[in-house]
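Format notes (please read before filing issues)

Several people have asked whether sequences and structure tokens are stored in separate files. They are not. Every record keeps both together, in the order shown below: the sequence lines, then the token lines. Line labels are part of the format and must not be stripped during preprocessing.
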Amino acid sequence: MAGKVYLTGAGPGDIELLTIKALRVIKKADVIIYDKLANPDILKEAKSECSFIYVGKENKHHIMPQDEINEIIYQSALKYKHVVRLKGGDPFVFGRGGEEGIYLREKEIEFEFIPGISSAIAVPGYAGIPVTHRGIASSFRVVTAHKSSDKTKSQLSFEDYKNDDTIIFLMGLHQLEKISTKLIEIGKPKNHPIAVISRGTTKDEEVVVGELENIYELAKDLKTPVLIITGEVVNLRKKLNWIKKS
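Then the structure lines:
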């Protein structure tokens, strides 16, 4: 009888943001199939006899294609009773967890989805930037700025962003210059506030705040992963930056 797969979100970086439910399935896992996690210390919570399979992807270097990852998860379910597919952030927020779930359903493998706290809201929050705020921003858009290998799906539709209060770009450091230029082209002011957050929610977090016209020069040398957030909410960091820097 095939085992069960848990499509599990690891959260954005701070290990204490891992959910209780995710921790429970990690502790009982027979095998953990993991990406380049925001916090690798999560793996230390597994039992001593647990097996580990790394299928991570890093910028410009894919360890293996998604279809091979799908097959590894499936084959693991045929071999093990409890399979944890562990992904940084939330599996359904640009994490391809949906594709993995569909593949498992087609193979008649039982699976469960365990949400993770998305970096889209947690990383700005740790930097003192709320994604919404009464009287300033009543909505936010989350965009993946990572270029897809599928050329038909890699174009950012900047014209659609004209009226957005807050825009959050994930995986976008190498698109930063394009992002800031295009936002100005569609009518955002040159001095529109923007922040780039590197390694958010971790002890190595770095935050650079600027304006659309100068953010590229200010933030281009930050280390990945980064999150980019633009909108008037960025100015609230002056009052809401709650983490004391030594």
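For reference, the curators noted about this record: The chain has a mean pLDDT of 92. The first helix runs from residue 20 to 28.
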